[in-house]
Amino acid sequence: MGAIQLTPTPATAERILHADAQRVIDAINAFTFETFKTRGGRLGSGMGSLIEAMWVYYMNGVLQNEGGEAQLCEIAWLQDHEPADFACLTRGANWDPASRLGELFRIEAKSMNIGVDEAKGHFTNLRSETREYDQLLVLVWSWTTAANQYVWPRIHDYFLGPALPIIELRDALHRQRGGTFVDAQNCPDGCEPLACTHAGEPLNAAGKRERRSGPRTCKPANVEYAANFGGLIRMLKTDNDSARQRFRDLRRANPVAHRYISFIHKHYPAEEVNQYRKAEWQTALRCAGLPTNGESASEANAILRQHLPNYQELLRDTF
Fold it and tell me: Is this prediction's pTM over 0.70?
């Protein structure tokens, strides 16, 4: 009788990957510090894509060496980039990407160079393409100074969490901006409802498609698609009171949404400052027991960051 093949549950595999994530980042940084030191460190170098690939190999090494339940999991590349980058598999199981046989969940990976004013990463996976345990991985990195005018690509931080709450947050704020999603019953291309391939595709406030796979009749002039949907930073922006309130309600209601918002705002302070009015920043200082003296919004934000490590929980719970 052959050995019984153990199969971890998606929840178990998720817990293991989250527990091992910092070890993986530390190992990658140790390697890149020794191997990738260079002069210059050009933006747009493709290093972000390399770091994403390294995450797969280093995570697999950690899982293999950890043994136990972790050894039952492995990370694989999705060959056709559809609609995620990687899949967490049961090690040694038969795998069919088309049916997801052998998969525990999928992982969409993005890297953000904090030296770039407008991060180009977009998370555009649709709700219909995403399952309960599918994950979003975001790696924040930059060219960091070493000795003798050399630099190296250092990962400063990461987000790894369930994708569905981020999709809910993204889509709700998309609607607040006047955006919509294609209804199969009323597709702009006139598709038969049961055969419509555009259901759920995002359209901007002008009715133009935000993904290449959107309706052909919604193509913008001069470009294939608008490409504003799902920007890792941009999707959190609000420009009116209704959108701001929806943002706050979702942040308060969902711990994963709160964690993602806090992660992005930690590394992009100007985005966090703009999310609240000056008077609200003054209120936050008072709630934290800190003195106020007419500080600007950015000054108040800096004071909170300096004196209150959990200030983002204060923002969530107060407003």
Answer: yes
Instruction: Give the integer Cα–Cα distance in Å for 52 and 310.
Output: 29
> Is residue 190 packed enough to be buried (19+ CB in 10 Å), middle (13-18) or exposed (0-12)?
exposed
Q: Which residue has the tokens 């994530």?
A: 21
The secondary structure of residue 3, as a DSSP letter, is P
* Polymer length in residues for the chain: 319
Q: How far is CA 264 from the centre of its chain?
A: 9
* Res 1: pLDDT: 44
Cα distance between residue 89 and residue 87, in whole Å: 6
Instruction: Report strand pairing: 135-145 vs 103-113.
Output: parallel
The tokens describing 214, both together, are 């959107």
116 Cβ contact partners less than 8 Å away, ≥ 6 residues apart: 43
* DSSP label at residue 83: S
CA-CA distance, 63 to 192, in Å (whole number)?
46
C-beta separation of 171 from 127 below 8 A? yes
Contact 203, 235 (CB under 8 A): no
The position carrying tokens 């992982």 is 107
Mind spelling out the 3-state secondary structure of 115-177? CCCCCCCECCCCHHHCCCCCEEEEEEEEEEECHHHCEEEEEEEEEEEEHHHHHHHHHHHHHHC
pLDDT digits (tens, 9 = 90+) for 110-132: 999 987 755 678 999 999 999 99
What ranges make up the beta strands (E) of the chain?
73-77, 86-90, 103-113, 135-145, 151-162, 180-181, 202-203
DSSP annotation of 247 reads H
- Which residues fall within 8 angstroms of residue 80, CB to CB, at 6 or more apart? 97
By the 8 A CB rule, do 33 and 152 touch? yes
pLDDT the model gives residue 6: 76
| Half-sphere exposure of residue 311: CA atoms within 13 angstroms, side-chain side | 25
Phi, psi angle pair for 211, to nearest 5° = -130, 155
Euclidean distance between CA atoms 255 and 258, whole angstroms? 5
